[in-house]
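# nightly structure sweep
# worker-07 picked up a monomer target from the shared queue
# config: single-sequence mode, recycle default, output format = structure tokens
# input follows
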Amino acid sequence: MRHGLRFQGFHPEAFRFFRRLARSNHKAWFDRNRGLYQEHVMGALRALFEELVPVVLELDPEVEISGRVGRNFSRINRDIRFRPDKAPYRTNLYLFFGDRRREARDARLYLGLSGEGVTCGFAAYGGRDSALEQNLKPRRQENPQALERFLRRLRGYETYWHATERGEWKKHPGWPQTEKDWKRCRAFVVRRKFPATRRALRSPRFARTLEGVFCRLFPLYALTVIHGRPGEHALKRI
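# output follows
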């Protein structure tokens, strides 16, 4: 897995690549700019992955660290077979860490890169057998105040959730406020946003900032993902 890559920060070309891709989303343009993608987008994310692996393994030894697309990296190619929008590429890319024992990895610590900048945080997505349904919701129900206290302490973080209404996903700010809202919740996200204009993103030291976000949100990840007492009592340690 280790390739000796050193994260140097995100070059402005990484964000410019996605903004230009949004305007010219076709294979010919992507092929002409594949070198920029490999160096400043995927290359930077893989180097950052190498730096973050020791941190996340210390937090949870069961985290996925294969470095494979679909397991630690999202795909740049879109599945357009059944979509009216035939644009072949996504205009963002994700690096994420989830439980290697869960094939879906539907709850994760993640970093997103797009033309607007970087987002970093925790995300959990629903489904009958998901960690959101099996762990987060019932554990939260046992002690709602603990989770709310934790979320209220997250200064500078954005929190939102999704429900489905008339077959469409609808985004709600904050976190679910009632038992009915929690039952309707199909996705839950807590994140920090770093705009592309922020100079700190260009420094190798930005990796330390992202490590801090992962460590800060790890109790929420543990509550959602980790089985047994360590997960059940995750919020009691903060």
